[in-house]
């Protein structure tokens, strides 16, 4: 069984290093969510009968809907020990970085450059009759604004990935009433409340 993602050392520098943040999220998703079918297949016990090559050519292929279902207890264990903790770690990282993005940034290395560019833009004379594009100027974004945009995008991606992974889990696992009726976020929230007690 796969292991849940471990939380990185959370610092503002980690969040502002967009490559490191994206790599962490990408690797965590690839290990657990992108390979959800393989992770679930690992929960099945191997076939009891030894391999018989004569059966391969004589039996028709089974349609995908007739795949062996995984016992609910194994699915619940996988979800509680691997899937939900990985989702929680990613949620914690995104929440921390969102708080960094909304906090003042006294260490912003581009603050002086932005102030100079803004001052030049205010002093510039614009004559749109001579140059219709002269009025166009877009200020450089602060790194907190860029981080906030990245976090918004990654939260949307996270929601899509969780929904897809949860649908695969519900499709492959036997339903004992614990997994079936819940959506991905409701199941995660239920796990959070149960793990706190």
Automatic annotation (TrEMBL):
<protein>
    <recommendedName>
        <fullName>Caffeine-induced death protein Cid2</fullName>
    </recommendedName>
</protein>
<dbReference type="GO" id="GO:0005758">
    <property type="term" value="C:mitochondrial intermembrane space"/>
</dbReference>
<comment type="similarity">
    <text>Belongs to the MIX23 family.</text>
</comment>
<dbReference type="InterPro" id="IPR019171">
    <property type="entry name" value="MIX23"/>
</dbReference>
<dbReference type="InterPro" id="IPR016805">
    <property type="entry name" value="MIX23_fungal"/>
</dbReference>
<dbReference type="Pfam" id="PF09774">
    <property type="entry name" value="MIX23"/>
</dbReference>
<feature type="region of interest" description="Disordered">
    <location>
        <begin position="45"/>
        <end position="70"/>
    </location>
</feature>
């Amino acid at each position: 069984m796969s292991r849940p993602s471990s939380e990185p050392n959370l610092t503002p520098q980690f969040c502002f290093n967009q490559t490191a943040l994206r790599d962490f999220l990408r690797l965590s998703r690839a290990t657990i969510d992108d390979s959800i079918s393989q992770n679930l297949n690992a929960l099945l016990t191997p076939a009891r009968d030894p391999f018989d090559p004569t059966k391969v050519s004589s039996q028709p292929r089974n349609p995908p809907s007739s795949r062996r279902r995984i016992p609910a207890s194994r699915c619940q264990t996988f979800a509680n020990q691997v899937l939900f903790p990985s989702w929680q770690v990613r949620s914690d990282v995104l929440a921390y970085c969102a708080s960094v993005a909304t906090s003042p940034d006294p260490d912003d290395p581009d603050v002086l450059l932005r102030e100079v560019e803004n001052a030049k833009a205010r002093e510039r004379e614009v004559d749109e009759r001579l140059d219709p594009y002269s009025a166009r100027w877009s200020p450089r974004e602060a790194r907190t604004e860029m981080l906030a945009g990245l976090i918004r995008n990654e939260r949307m991606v996270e929601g899509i990935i969780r929904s897809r992974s949860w649908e695969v889990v519900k499709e492959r696992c036997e339903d004992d009433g614990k997994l079936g009726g819940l959506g991905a976020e409701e199941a995660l929230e239920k796990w959070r409340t149960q793990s706190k007690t």
